[in-house]
Amino acid sequence: MRKIIMATFSLLVACYWMPVEASECEDYINSEKFVEARSACQLEANNGSPFAQFVLGQMWDSGQGGGSSLYEGTKWYRLASDNGHTRSMLRLGNKYQYGYGAPVKLEEAEKWYLRAAEKGQKKAYFQLGALYVKQKVWVQAYYWYKKSSEAGDESAMEMVKILEHGDSEGHISIR
Known about the structure:
By secondary structure, this protein is mostly helical.
């Protein structure tokens, strides 16, 4: 029994201290070998890596390492988002808010921004504020800009001032 416990302990220690290697996808991206990165990321993305799925979304959007397709980029961001990747959620929100590779659907944009915000993605706070301004939902806009300003976003601080006191012409005050 003691040998089994020691063997198990040794195995756990070995696994814990084993160095974690960076993915090939990340290595190729860091060395700016985008053709190789696309191939490596594709393999890792197909195996469920949210990071690789996010990178593939970026590569499809920008055309790095091969062809360009905003719709293919959207597909990979959705997969990464479904796997909890918050920057992908933010990108999906942008795509639905502005129509980049997806139809303009403000309710979808809101859904993805909210998911990202719930997971602590601070940039989503600002995006929610902007989305609610676009919809003229001033109290919600104020709430999210305030949250973003508390996280240190200077642009959000300016928006909070405008929403509290109005702009230079006295418009858009929630008070």
